[in-house]
Amino acid sequence: MRHSIITAPFACLAFAALVTAVHAQPTRPAASQPAAAIAVTLPRDRASVPLDGRLLLLVSNDSTREPRFQISDGPESQLVFGLDVNGWAPGTNRVVGNQANGYPLVSLRELPRGRYWVQALLNRYETFTLSTGHTVKLPPDKGEGQQWARKPGNLLSTPRWITIDPQQRMGAAITLDREIPAIAPPQDTKWIKHVTIRSERLSKFWGRDMFIGANVLLPAGFDTHPDARYPLVVYHGHFPATFEGFRETPPDPNLAPDFSARFNLAGYNKIQQELNHQFYTDWTGPSFPRVLLMEVRHPTPYYDDSYAVNSASQGPWGDAIMYELIPAVEQQFRGLGQGWARITYGGSTGGWEAMAVQMFYPDEFNGAFIACPDPIDFRANTVFNLYEEANAYVLPSRWKRTPRPAHRNALGQVQTTMEEANRREAALGSKGRSGDQWDIWQATYSPMGADGYPKPIWDKATGVIDHEVARYWRDHYDLSFILRRDWATLGPKLFDKINIYVGDMDNYYLNNAVYLTEEFLRSTTNPKWTGEITYGDRAEHCWNGDATRSNAYSRLRYHQMYIPRIYERMRARAPRGADTLSWRY
Questions:
Q1: Are 132 and 452 spatial neighbours (Cβ–Cβ below 8 Å)?
Q2: How far is CA 286 from CA 217, 220, 585, in A?
Q3: Residue 343 and residue 336: Cα distance in Å, rounded?
Q4: In whole angstroms, what separates CA 154 from the centre of its chain?
Q5: Which of 564, 568, 561, 566 is nearest to 275 (CA)?
Q6: How far is CA 479 from the centre of its chain?
Q7: What is the DSSP letter of 323?
Q8: Are 503 and 540 within 8 A, CB to CB?
Q9: Domains in the chain, ordered, with CATH?
Q10: Where are the beta strands (DSSP E) in 430-497?
Q11: Nearest to 317 by CA among 307, 302, 328
């Protein structure tokens, strides 16, 4: 799951209450009254041809930041209202009114009269003609990791205070007078190298040149041991512009300390710098294992990464990584290039990916260390059974309607619901184009619909589950189901390669799916599973199995946690005659 979603504590507070605190005695318009409407202008000096995309109206009562940076799942979220625009001609207006999907308020009709800090943004789409024959409009990544608020080329307005009154049919006009600038590519250093290749497989599927990349951390002594060949460690996770968590310089003594609400820690930014520098010290020290450490850069038009598997709507990302990118990295940096000399790990999205690639390419990896994985058993798709329950948003009963939670804190206090999280995504994009969590699961796991977009797993408005789509999810991407179904053939290849770690207070309830997977793995007999599954007591999301440190610290030490274990595993399981010496210096 995308970690930026959980950087602040969440609560189910109505935005109207926040507005009331600032604007005394707001008046809510009745349903029969007209909703406010804002005209947004696309000026001729910003576009020479008609544009497609998602037009977002961002409304806030906090002018300390631009409204585009104030949308989240948490109680601090401000408002967004979105609608699709197609063929928007330069010099004309589009009106954002009651027809726009809203979050946290459902529509502009619910907005109390008042003065607001307002901004408009156009998340621009491009047209893709897929190898399936479908034509789709999507926002390609521009080097930012599929972040609509920071995407280069997106048009936006300068924020300003305006009065919005539902009684006034047309409010003030807004002009898209700015464009988000391009991002300079990261530069190579002695330790960090950036590899980008054109993927033949992906380019064929998407109908245009598609690129995939890696950030590679070189081992100490790489340049002074030219005859050494190295094992490859694939660290899965979200989009990394460069290799993060590796700081060559000591912590900045003048850094003003911040406060982490998630961990209730003052100066967490200093802690991060200290542990990032410690990783540099460990990595370059005399006793740290010498391996190539690789992160995959694979943002797609649907999300900041592809989930590292082949899928109907996103194309063959799994094969592109396995058979194009990894060989290119191993060839360029003297990798051993064999399955026994590759191991993978990751957390959250990266945890799911590590388990998936180990299962889908069982001979190509020698083990997976899987931390806090996204749901690996869809019978516990966070808090509900995707196959047996009717609705993703509520637990139905005869006399009440109980909302399903989507996020909790370490005390179990619910801070956002399934319906709220999905309404935010519906405001940001139709047809699964929000670029966020529930939509990327759909884009990865669902079959392609007749329109070329992923077939919805549930109705975004009502939460009603499509069980035909759910069966497709099960057969192709429910990792626990696939293990149970195919253990006769997968078991001999995986029995000692799967290791899972999760906190029992995971913020997204991801431990629930691990319990179900563990039941099967511990019951296997032919062959018997010999891996490891451990749970962190009261540990939140990103717990990686380190019981000696709090989660605030252990989540910054994935590499030191796993790589020494990987080193010993590779040595113990190398085939006869394999090179186990040239990289041990």
A1: yes
A2: 16, 8, 8
A3: 12
A4: 20
A5: 561
A6: 19
A7: I
A8: yes
A9: 3-179 (no CATH), 192-377+482-573 (3.40.50.1820), 383-475 (no CATH)
A10: none
A11: 307
pLDDT in tens, 235-267: 999 999 999 999 999 999 999 999 998 898 999
Q: Is the pLDDT score of 27 beyond 50?
A: no
Q: What is the CA radius of gyration of the chain?
A: 25
Supply the pLDDT for residue 24: 31
Structure tokens at 192: 């960090």
b/e map 454-486, b = 16+ CB within 10 Å = bbbbbebeebebebebbebbbebbbbbbbbbee
For 420: left if phi > 0, alpha if psi spans -120 to 50, otherwise beta; the answer is alpha
CA-wise closest residue to 579 among 279, 220, 332, 330: 330
Structure tokens at 486: 């195919």
| 315-327 pLDDT per residue, tens | 999 999 999 999 9
Contact at 8 Å (CB) between 558 and 270? no
Report whether the peptide linkage leading into residue 186 is cis, meaning its omega lies within 30 degrees of zero.
no
> For residue 32, is pLDDT > 80?
no
Q: 283-314, pLDDT tens digit by residue?
A: 999 999 999 999 999 999 999 999 999 999 99
Q: How far apart are CA 230 and CA 546, in angstroms?
A: 26
CB–CB of 348/541 below 8 Å?
yes
